[in-house]
Amino acid sequence: MKKIFVLHLHTLPWISGSGLNTFYSMKYLDAARYKSALASSSPGRLEELTKKHGFEFYPLKHLKAPVSPLHDLLAIFEIRNLLKKLKPDILHTHNSKAGFLGRLSARSLPGIKIVHTVHGFSFHDRESPLRRIFFKQLEQIAFPWADAVIAISEELADWGAREGIGKKEDYRIVWSGIEIEKFKDADRSEGRKILKLDDDDIAVGLVAKLWEGKGHNFLIEVMDSLINEKVKLVFIGEGYLEKELKSKVSKMGAKGRSVIFAGFHEDTAAITKALDIAVLPSDFEGMGRVLLEAQAAGVPVMANRVGGIKNVVTDGGILLERNDTEGWKKALMRLIEDEEERKKFGSAGQKFVTEKFSIQKMVKELEKIYEDILVASSNRTKSHATQ
Question: How far apart (Å, rounded) are the C-alpha atoms in residues 275 and 233?
Answer without folding.
Answer: 10
